[in-house]
Amino acid sequence: MDLALLKSKGLIRQLNAPATSDVTFPYGLGAHGLHEVLERAYGDRAAVTGFVLTATKATRPQALFWISQSSTRRDMGSLSESALQEMTRGKIRCLSLATRPARDALWAAEEAVISGAVSHVIAEVDVADFTATRRLALASERHGVPVTLILPYRCEGATAAATRWRISTRPSTPNPYDPRAPGRPRWSASLERCRIAPSVSGRTFEVEWNDETLSLCVVSGMVVGPLTPRTSSAGNFQQLKAG
């Protein structure tokens, strides 16, 4: 059978190999392709939002496009401009849109990707089936605009997303200036599925946000052997610069 003929008819498509940076944390999230981020339980939406904003960085100069269903905004609230400015120090501009059914939000996400006018599309939806996510994945690959779907904890089933993350809150670090006050926020990020690096599927990362350096740290989760005084934190995390 003539492979060239099959390729010309679109029956065989060359898959692009993931960039080297995509096979390390956060595995292409917000940089390439379609990804899903879910709550561990009801009430973890703030943790999900914080993780998405801090684990990703802009790869294009255009603004971020944030789409939410009206039901989600009613139940969970919406991303405030002040929160976005605080977490990014004004390095990310954001456009927002509210829709009613999930299909309208997914349609708007696909149209935004095709337009090429935004740097990253984030859609908060109640549900996304395989067909819709496959369309988004193909559009993202074709036009180079990453897409992140934020989904509720009850969502299950197969989709075309490259990764599926499940996020929950963790106790914050001690505040160095006031022991009664919260310190840096921490989240638990479980990578339930990773198509570009299947060997890490099932791994859980403990991550910490540093609001002074605008960096997300992957913190060591286990201690082996006797405890010793900490002299430096340089070896305890991988630092991801934002923006």
Describe this structure in words.
The protein has 243 residues and is α/β, with parallel strands linked by helices. It has a domain at 33-185: P-loop containing nucleotide triphosphate hydrolases (Rossmann fold). It is built from six helices and ten strands. The chain has helices spanning 3-8, 45-55, 70-76, 81-88, 102-115, 130-143, and strands spanning 34-39, 64-69, 94-99, 120-124, 147-151, 163-170, 186-194, 204-210, 215-219, 237-241. Strands 3-2-4-5-1-6-7-8-9-10 form a ten-stranded mixed beta sheet, sandwiched between helices. A hairpin with a 4-residue loop joins strand 8 (204-210) and strand 9 (215-219). The longest helix is centred in the middle third of the chain and has 14 residues, at 102-115. It is globular, with a radius of gyration of 19 Å. The termini are far apart.
The spatial strand order of the largest sheet comes to 3-2-4-5-1-6-7-8-9-10
* CATH class wording of the domain at 33-185: Alpha Beta
In helices, the fraction of residues equals 10-25%
SSE string, helix = H, strand = E?
HEHEHHEHEHEEEEEE
Low-confidence runs (pLDDT<50, min 5 residues)? 10-15, 222-243
* Cα separation of the termini: 48 Å
- Give me the secondary-structure category: alpha/beta
Radius of gyration over C-alpha positions, nearest whole angstrom: 19 Å
Counted by DSSP, the helix tally is 6
CATH topology category name of the domain at 33-185: Rossmann fold
- The fraction of residues in strands falls at 25-35%
CATH superfamily of the domain at 33-185: P-loop containing nucleotide triphosphate hydrolases
For the sheet with most strands, the description reads: 10 strands, mixed
CATH architecture of the domain at 33-185: 3-Layer(aba) Sandwich
